[in-house]
Specification:
Length: 185
C-alpha cells in the first residue's frame, strides 16, 4: 500500500503554530509573572516610603502644633512651606555627623512632597484619620446643685494612616501603644 504524504506547506504551517505557541507559553509562564513581581515590589517599597515620610511629617506637625492633623493637603503644604520643617530638615546632627533630615528619599532617589498624597499602585489618596474625644464633666457644689457642665473636646492625639492597596498602616485611633508604629515594623 502506497500512502500519499501530506504537502510540505501543511507541515510548515504546523511547525509555525508550534513555534508561536511556544513563544506565547514562555511569555505567559515566565516573563509576565516576573514583571508582575517586580512591579508589586516597587509599589510596596514606594508606598511604605511615602507612608514613612507622612509619619515623619505628622511627628513634626505634632511637635509644632501639639496635635496631629487629619488633612493630608495641609500636611503636605506644611512639609513644603513651613520654616520649622526647613529648620529640622537642614539641621546638622553633631552626634552622627550627618544631616538630621527625617524624610527618606523615594525610589526615584529624591524626596517629592507632592507625591506623598497618592498611592503608587492605584493612585488613590491615602486614608488619614485622627481621633476625637469629647469629655463631659459636671461640676456640683457642696449642696448637690449642678453649677456648670464642662465639655472638653480633644482631637488629634492619635492618627491612623492606611494604604488602600493593602501595603500597610501606621498608627491607631484606639491605643497609644501603636502611635507612630507601622504595621510592617
Amino acid at each position: 500500500m502506497i500512502s500519499k504524504s501530506d504537502p510540505w506547506y501543511i507541515h510548515a504551517g504546523l511547525y509555525l503554530v508550534i513555534a508561536i505557541l511556544t513563544v506565547l507559553l514562555v511569555k505567559v509562564a515566565i516573563i509576565d509573572p516576573h514583571d508582575y513581581v517586580e512591579t508589586e515590589k516597587y509599589n510596596k517599597t514606594e508606598s511604605r516610603l511615602r507612608m514613612t515620610n507622612l509619619k515623619e511629617a505628622q511627628i513634626l506637625w505634632d511637635r509644632k502644633n501639639g496635635n496631629y492633623t487629619g488633612n493630608l493637603d495641609a500636611l503636605i503644604e506644611f512639609i513644603k512651606s513651613d520654616p520649622y520643617v526647613d529648620s529640622v530638615v537642614n539641621a546638622f546632627d553633631s552626634l552622627i555627623m550627618k544631616l538630621a533630615n527625617p524624610f527618606k528619599p523615594l525610589s526615584s532617589g529624591e524626596f517629592v512632597p507632592d507625591s506623598l498624597k497618592w498611592t503608587p499602585k492605584s493612585h488613590s489618596v491615602y486614608i488619614l484619620q485622627i481621633d476625637t474625644a469629647v469629655v463631659i464633666d459636671t461640676v456640683i457644689n457642696r449642696r448637690g446643685k449642678v453649677t456648670r457642665v464642662d465639655t472638653t473636646i480633644t482631637f488629634g492625639t492619635r492618627y491612623y494612616l492606611e494604604d488602600l492597596d493593602g501595603y500597610g498602616t501606621i498608627g491607631s485611633l484606639d491605643t497609644d501603644a501603636l502611635k507612630n508604629t507601622a504595621s510592617w515594623e
